[in-house]
Amino acid sequence: MNVPFWKMHGAGNDFILVDDRAQTFPGDPDTVRALTAPTYGIGSEGLILIQPSDRADFRMRFYNPDGNEVEMCGNGARCVARLACEIGVAPASMRFDTVAGEIAAEVLEEDRVRLTMTPPKDWKLNAKLELPGGPFPYHFVNSGVPHVVAEVGDVDGVDLLTLGAAVRYHDDFKPAGTNLNLIQVTGPDSLKVRTYERGVEGETLACGTGMVACGLVAGILERVRTPVHITCASGDVLEVDYTPVEGGGAEKVTLTGPAVHVFRGEIDL
Q: CATH 3.10.310.10 occupies which residues in the chain?
């Protein structure tokens, strides 16, 4: 079975994309793991399928490199929006389904895409987690997938792999687990962020829903003003904007950033 694919990245977060409107792609964990493997496969931090939808322009299905399907991916959503527009699946202003809910997207100039995200939920601010090293202050929000956000003085001075694994697998977040984002305030409307991503089980150069979670938490806590400009590990800058909701929370959440082609090809499954 020969399958055409596109390799794209959003701020260094890279994906394999497949036009699966015929719904013939075998989305089993073994196939996903084989294709996303960096040495023996194509290599990526996720695999995305474009499938039909009864209520939107198309359906986006996203798989982590561990083979598990997850709710959403902000960087992947920008990439799939650009590709869907280019291959005639959707117009430049579109809507598509995800497990997390319906996403609106607009393909802009200079390889950039703006997403209108699903409403954030499950807020938990100023909480503490018991870790082997002692109490760990954190905030939590589900911005499409679950994210822990913690502010530190210097994101580069933290052992992210050790801390990220401890938080990701903590009993408080079982069974699904969580991502961990460390934020450093760098200006009145800017942050620097590093992210440990579940499913990747390590640091990622960028995580779209993670950037949204960081922008929301830092904004709601009045650490920065909106729109928030967030520098991720790749060096790219993503923009997060939202409208505060009276009584707490946010709505009309947007994420704007790059969606870039790397190469296209065909693989024999």
A: 2-117, 121-258
Q: Give pLDDT tens digits for 36-76.
A: 999 999 999 999 999 999 999 999 999 999 999 999 999 99
pLDDT mean across residues, the chain = 96
Q: Which residues contact 192 (CB under 8 A, 6 or more apart)?
A: 155, 183, 184, 186, 230, 231
Decide if 73 is catalytic: yes
Q: Which of 73, 85, 214, 232 is catalytic?
A: 73
pLDDT in tens, 147-156: 999 999 999 9
Q: Is 232 a catalytic residue?
A: no
Q: Does domain 121-258 have CATH number 3.10.310.10?
A: yes
Active-site position among 79, 207, 214, 232: 207
The full DSSP string for 118-174 is: PPPEEEEEEEEEEETTEEEEEEEEESSSEEEEEE-S-GGGS-HHHHHHHHHT-GGGT
Query: What would the CATH number be for the domain defined by 2-117?
Result: 3.10.310.10
